[in-house]
């Protein structure tokens, strides 16, 4: 079986500091590099009044996206990587930065062919 | 049950014109607007030598991302929208632009709380 890439859907619950675009940017970049990915572009938007952050890091090997709801202490993160990258290696950086009480990880293999 | 957003994982197979950043940008924008979303930012990267395109449209209501493999006629698209947007309304624009022979759609509800 061949597949185009591994797509992790990561939900953080009980998380902190989800209103900081700077911390989020730095954390996703650290995670991307630890996973072995090459960063091409990043963009983050800071919402008012709730302080939520939406953004993405575009990689040579796909992308990482994040959307945060600080008022619910919840963040929805996608880590999609193809090639030899290991997207799971980004997760410890999320735990360290945002101190979630619970982390849910779902794995989807995209582009599977026999 | 409340949830933060609806996340569609859309895989196009047997698709055409997956090497055109301009067509991809226009198509994702049309789809975002048809779904009722507000576009904040977009960025697309065109790879050589295969002509693949990776990119994202950041929305006030989350994001649309795409990664294409023209040599396999395959594209992996995510349409993640919260609020009153209907992400399914973007799919006809993907069909019209890229003429896929098969479209697979998976739905994930992100941030579900009782």
Keywords:
six-stranded antiparallel β-sheet; 19% helix; 114 residues; homodimer; alpha+beta; globular
Helix content class of chain A: 10-25%
SSE order of chain A, as H and E?
EHEEEEHE
- Helix and strand content put the structural class of chain A at alpha+beta
What would you call the quaternary organization? Answer: homodimer
| Strand segment tally of chain A | 6
Adjacency order of strands in the biggest sheet of chain A:
2-3-4-5-1-6
Describe the structure.
Two copies of one chain form a homodimer. Chain A is of the alpha+beta class. Chain A is 19% helix and 43% strand. Chain A contains two helices and six strands; from the N terminus they run E-H-E-E-E-E-H-E. A six-stranded antiparallel sheet of chain A has the order 2-3-4-5-1-6, covered by helices on one side. In chain A, a hairpin with a 2-residue loop joins strand 3 (53-59) and strand 4 (62-69). In chain A, helix 1 runs antiparallel to helix 2. Chains A and B meet through strand 1, strand 2, strand 3, strand 4 and strand 5 of A and strand 1, strand 2, strand 3, strand 4 and strand 5 of B.
